[in-house]
Amino acid sequence: MNELIKITKNKNNEQVVSARELHKILGVKTRFAEWWIQNSRLLIEHEDFEGVVTTAPYNPKFPDKVQQLKDYAVTADNAKHLAMQSQTKKSREIRDYFIACEKELKLQQLPMTLDQQIAAIATGYGSVKQELVEVQDKVTDLTERFGLPATNAAILNNTRNIHIIRFLGGKDSKAYHELGRKVFSEFGRDFKDNFGVPRYDSIPLSQYDEAIAYTKSWQPSYNTMISIRNTNMQMEFD
């Protein structure tokens, strides 16, 4: 269908046309302002039309000036009535054009049949699949850059605590109270050196399993082990 007049949509998603363009295409003999006053008396502003400002075509007599013109964005339904009221040779053609556009819009809004839905899915599957892959890549990248999710970080933290407390002889041991801070610090240094991170919970999610395994197999230094043993032995003799 050839476009007789440009149809756009307003903020309410309604089809609208320029009153000035309609006036021109209809071939009305009277001036636009006069024609509008005569034919828009029954129209309601902000419902049937909205006042807008347009610019006049370039005028070589005034190359440095831009002339602003008062225009109206009229809903297609009311533009159809304006066309018939104008009673020009183009009136019926414009009216029929608006009716055809309305029918086309309604067809576009009808729910698709099952076959149409399958065809649409098949057509868009490739692009949707690619978009999903891109989203997954972005999520992976963000996870890698921002460290462990809170749940994984909590599990790693708990694994570290259980493992180190066991080496110290439990929470009731003398070594736990006197050397606990030192042993935890030693683990932190070893862990950060091994994984090259500023904090033990800053490792990428891709290294989470490796971090758990490292934590479970970590041992304090020989000198620290001796200190733990001697400290706990003192408690036994006290």
UniProtKB/TrEMBL annotation:
Domain ORF6C: 118-225
Domain AntA/AntB antirepressor: 17-87
Family annotation (Pfam families): AntA, ORF6C
Segments crossing the lipid bilayer: none
Top-level division of the source organism's lineage: Bacteria
Name of protein: ORF6C domain-containing protein
Source species: Lactococcus lactis
